[in-house]
Amino acid sequence: MFVQLNELVGIHWFLILLPYITLLFAYIGLHPIVVVNLLAQSLKPDVLGTTTEQMAIALLGGAVMTFFMGPFSGTLGLMSSMINVAPLRIARWSLVNVIGFSIILAAVVLLV
């Protein structure tokens, strides 16, 4: 499925979308470390036509985005319990930071 997505959108857009795939799985309920580990084992950079560094930066950047916005993240859970606010509301507060981070991440992934 990921190879077909890579062929459909191209390697550059695939690397930009990869962190959002991690974020999507976090919203489904999977922990980011599990998602990154499974994706790292299943995606072969030589088959996709990318470098291991680009793949690592994209996957780790996606994990960082889930720590900011993932509703099941321990960071948001701890903050939620401390200030008595729903985790999704705190995730909305972090949206601007995640958008800025994703722009920087996309630039770094494409420049490496």
Any overview of this molecule?
The two termini are 25 Å apart. The chain is built from 8 helices and no strands. By secondary structure, the chain is mainly α. The protein has one domain (2-111).
Features:
single chain; 112 residues; mainly alpha; 8 helices; elongated
Low-confidence stretches: none
* Total strands: 0
Count of distinct structural domains: 1
Oligomer: single chain
Structure, briefly:
The chain is mostly helical and 112 residues long. 83% of the residues lie in helices and 0% in strands. It has one domain (2-111).
Secondary structure layout plus pairing:
Layout: H1 2-9, H2 11-28, H3 32-42, H4 45-48, H5 52-69, H6 74-83, H7 87-93, H8 95-111
